[in-house]
Amino acid sequence: MVLHLPEADQKTLDNKSLIVKELNRFTNNVLSDNDELRPYETDGLNVYKQKPLAVVLPENTKEVSEILKYCYQHNIKVVPRGAGTGLSGGSLPLKDCVLMSMGKFNKILEKDFKNRCVVTQPGVTNLAITQAVQDQGYYYAPDPSSQLACSIGGNIAENSGGVHSLKYGTTTNNVLGVEIVLIDGTILRIGGKHLDSEGYDLLGVFMGSEGLLGVVTEATVKILKKPEAVRAVLIGFNSIEDAGSCVSDVISKGIVPAGMEIMDKPLIIATENYAKAGYPRDVEALLIVEIDGTASEVEAMIQKVLDIAKMNKASYNKASNSDEERMKFWKGRKAAFSACGVISPDYICMDGSIPRNKLADVLGYINQLSKKYNLRVANCFHAGDGNLHPLIMFDSNDPKELKKAEDFGADILKYCVKVGGVLSGEHGIGVEKRELMCEMFNNNDIQQQLSLKKAFDKKNLLNPGKVYPILHRCAEEGRIHIHKGKTKFPDLPRF
Fold it and tell me: Does domain 108-225 have CATH number 3.30.450.40?
């Protein structure tokens, strides 16, 4: 598929040698040869590829500031990048951009157990935070499936969640403060070790901003004390509708699990073949529920969950009796994406959120779309907060299949919005969903977002071409009203 991106600035392209020479004044880590650039030409959404003009790997905040200031003065686009695990194309380079990789910001700066927080650089992986504090009985709650590889900076950019977001929130609920460098080189500190900040919630503004407003160079994150007891239960159902009803009933009874996930049969089979997690193969849907707290509380809640499951016609249940067994339950769910990679040449992982009571409705519609497009789909999702992850399988060697997969995904997200949901739960918008923003937001909504972007980046140099739709496409599809040739989006870049 042809992906429309901002038109490359020919002057920037012609001055590549000079730009690279100048960048070397600010850092010793500049890549510009084709072979050196190749690893950076895509992120987790690897159906789209584009080499950048150059890659810089700064090692400290001063270098980041100087590089951004130089790019600002010379009108050079900058694309920030974390670990490159994002699934929406948020760190896809531009032909004329300097890609700023934060991989060398990989140190934990402070472990403050009295204030229950960690000060970390953005290139530290999600799981490394927990590993750094677990000997003292602490952990970091957000746990995306890619937590072995994804970085804290990337988590902040996408407001990542994970299995435990139901009870403990997404990244925005677990970050106390950040150090940010703006496109003109200005260094800002927002928040800190204290729980609340005065004034406007600028910290909230930067959470999930996808690198459009600034580059994070430091983060202060909350750590939690490990609970006394943690148990999980596998529950199988003969229909996805029964599994969805069970989820609604658990929440309505006031039970707040640490995590609650559903997998459908295609994914159960694929995952069990791949991870050997001990999942039943004869059920249509599998619900994983994790409860944490005191030992007595956990025991009582597990029994309540099993009783609710029985009322919803559960055909299988198995509770963990050790931490090893519990981790085995989660092993399959964490390996779901890899399992689909084994059975299909390619897949697109979608990300939308819906009201919990619409789960059965949306999954039924996804099955209809699967037949319409003649493409396989496997579903897993954070059931407690209605965050869907349909995995659409296709072969990218067939251009027709890629187009069908993209249309399939777009139809899913449009339906999510139709039933009262949103376009993204934790993967961001990037380039994957930008054309769908007009499905969810009206003229005024998008104009306000663009005005905020302009306040931090008036030249539109930070990660351009991401999040906001291409104007003419929205207009053509009737989702933007054009009056006498004048758009209501004066700040929207035209490309």
Answer: no
Cα separation of the two ends of the chain: 17
Closest CA to 39 of 122, 101, 126, 123: 101
Residue 47: what residue type? V
Please give the Cα distance from 264 to 284 (Å, whole number).
6
Count how many Cα atoms sit within 13 Å of the Cα of residue 244 in the half-sphere of its side chain.
Answer: 21
CA distances from 414 to 359, 419, 424, 426 (A): 15, 9, 11, 17
56 with 105: CB under 8 angstroms? no
CA quadruple 470, 476, 478, 483: dihedral sign = positive
* Lookup result for tokens 């496109």: 183
Strand partners, 143: 162
Chain position carrying tokens 């925005």 = 172
**How far, in Å, CA of 181 to CA of 188, rounded?**
6
Q: What is the pLDDT along the chain (495 residues), one digit of tens a residue?
A: 567 889 999 999 999 999 999 999 999 999 999 999 999 999 998 888 999 999 999 999 999 999 999 999 999 999 999 999 999 999 999 999 999 999 999 999 999 999 999 999 999 999 999 999 999 999 999 999 899 999 999 999 999 998 899 999 999 999 999 999 999 999 999 999 988 777 889 999 999 999 999 999 999 999 999 999 999 999 999 998 899 889 989 999 999 999 999 999 999 999 999 999 999 999 999 999 999 999 999 999 999 999 999 999 999 999 999 999 999 999 888 888 889 889 999 999 999 999 988 888 898 899 999 999 999 999 998 888 889 999 999 998 888 999 999 999 999 999 999 999 999 989 999 999 999 999 999 989 999 999 999 999 999 999 999 999 875 444 434 444 444 445 555 555 544
Rounded Cα distance between 252 and 255, Å, is: 7
Domain residue ranges of the chain, discontinuous segments joined by +: 10-101, 108-225, 229-336, 344-418
| DSSP code, position 2 | P
CATH for 344-418 (1.20.140, 3.30.429, 3.30.70, 1.10.150): 3.30.70
Cα three-residue angle 428-77-33, rounded to 5 degrees? 100
Q: Tell me the two tokens of residue 390.
A: 């349909």
**What is the per-residue burial (b if ≥16 Cβ within 10 Å, else e) of 197-206?**
eeeeebbeeb
CB 109, CB 119: distance < 8 Å: yes
Choices 3.40.50.620, 3.40.50.300, 3.30.43.10, 3.40.50.720: CATH for 10-101: 3.30.43.10
Instruction: Take residue 476 and report the two structure tokens written for it.
Output: 């053509």
Based on its alpha-carbon atoms, the radius of gyration of the chain, rounded to whole angstroms, reads 23
CATH topology assigned to domain 229-336: Alpha-Beta Plaits (3.30.70)
Element (H, E) at 185: none
